[in-house]
Amino acid sequence: MALLTKFTFVMACWAVTFITVADCSIYPSEMSGDSARKLPSAFIPVSQASTLGSFYSLSLSSTFPEDLEMNEYCIELLRIYRQRYVTYANCLVTYARPVKICQNCYTGFNSLEDIYKNISSDQPGPGNVSCHDSLMRSDRLMLLYALFSKLDEIWTSAECKQCLTEDQEALSNDTVYFMATLNQSLSCFEQHQRNHTELCKDCKASYKRLKELYGRMDKNQTLCIDLEDAMNITQQLWSKNFSCLLPREETVPVIAVSSFMLFLPIIFYLSSFLHSEQKKRKLIHPKRAKSNNSLMNIQDKFS
Ligand SMILES: *[C@@H]1O[C@H](CO)[C@@H](O)[C@H](O)[C@H]1NC(C)=O
Ligand SMILES: *[C@@H]1O[C@H](CO)[C@@H](O)[C@H](O)[C@H]1NC(C)=O
Ligand SMILES: *[C@@H]1O[C@H](CO)[C@@H](O)[C@H](O)[C@H]1NC(C)=O
Ligand SMILES: *[C@@H]1O[C@H](CO)[C@@H](O)[C@H](O)[C@H]1NC(C)=O
Ligand SMILES: *[C@@H]1O[C@H](CO)[C@@H](O)[C@H](O)[C@H]1NC(C)=O
Ligand SMILES: *[C@@H]1O[C@H](CO)[C@@H](O)[C@H](O)[C@H]1NC(C)=O
Ligand SMILES: *[C@@H]1O[C@H](CO)[C@@H](O)[C@H](O)[C@H]1NC(C)=O
Ligand SMILES: *[C@@H]1O[C@H](CO)[C@@H](O)[C@H](O)[C@H]1NC(C)=O
């Protein structure tokens, strides 16, 4: 410990002496004898040198001349954008699995979209400044644009708009109804979890209703990733975990068509047999006609 302090002291002394000597060696050449005599003590140049050094390093790393600095309004926009971006991204990750982003993050998306519109707008804001160029287009990375467009892309491919009202401020009635129907099925599953045979029997009606509603909403294009994922999970529970089978109405026409195909050869042979019978009768018929003709000829002759 004592050794360390001693060493530090020696080093400090050495440094002070070195700088002082260096200063002394510079001053005579740069200044007149008069100003050199005015220097009060050897310590002031040392402190001046150190403050100057820190000033230069600061100015190089962070401060630009004032005319290159961003407008205060744009800085404020950037601050709001940052807050809303973090809030929304946080929401997306929180509700990623099972997917519930549409129902939980639409407020976050709307406010992020709002502030993005302000930033990307060419319209000047208060103080007659537009932040579009200074925030968005000043470098090749265009980070603020790239960040937003990625999240916007996610929102679009999730098709969240289809689950929300037109102004995107609330869940649509269809979505709320689907969730209630889903809840009925899941509650039924929960009740009968112990006995899967009973579960398949008792929950069949509510599960069938859910599937039909889902099919109708698929046609209506009122589905989004939340509902698709919830249905996917429910479907897997039903068929894999509980091993239930829902007899499907689509199988009826399939069976009808395939049995028709099965009987096709028989029908073919039967029809060709009947056809040939008909031909036989037709072959007999012309003979009669001929005989009729000859009869008529005879009649003609006799008339
Ligand atoms: C964003 O723009 C809208 C109108 O274009 C304006 O009402 C709102 O105050 C702006 N927001 C901010 C933070 O400047
Ligand atoms: C805003 O700036 C534009 C061009 O810089 C100028 O033509 C316009 O008069 C300004 N408007 C106001 C209200 O200062
Ligand atoms: C949605 O439901 C609410 C209340 O149940 C009702 O007031 C509103 O009219 C419905 N909207 C549509 C588009 O059906
Ligand atoms: C269904 O809804 C009820 C009341 O709204 C709720 O208490 C229950 O937890 C829900 N069940 C499921 C499985 O989500
Ligand atoms: C499940 O329920 C069915 C019918 O109610 C019954 O026959 C069967 O023994 C039950 N199975 C179990 C494991 O409790
Ligand atoms: C589908 O759309 C039709 C008309 O647009 C509507 O009457 C019906 O209720 C919708 N069905 C569902 C399940 O949303
Ligand atoms: C349904 O789940 C399976 C497996 O979990 C997945 O591979 C598939 O992409 C899901 N489908 C949809 C429409 O999300
Ligand atoms: C359904 O089955 C999967 C895999 O077999 C299992 O990981 C999961 O926990 C099961 N879920 C329920 C609710 O039983």
From TrEMBL:
Stored Pfam families: OSTMP1
Domain of life: Eukaryota
Sorted UniProt keywords: Membrane, Signal, Transmembrane, Transmembrane helix
TM stretches of this protein: 252-274
Signal peptide: 1-15
Annotated GO CC locations: cytosol
PANTHER family reported in the protein's UniProt record: OSTEOPETROSIS ASSOCIATED TRANSMEMBRANE PROTEIN 1 (PTHR15644), OSTEOPETROSIS-ASSOCIATED TRANSMEMBRANE PROTEIN 1 (PTHR15644:SF2)
Protein's recorded name: Osteopetrosis-associated transmembrane protein 1-like
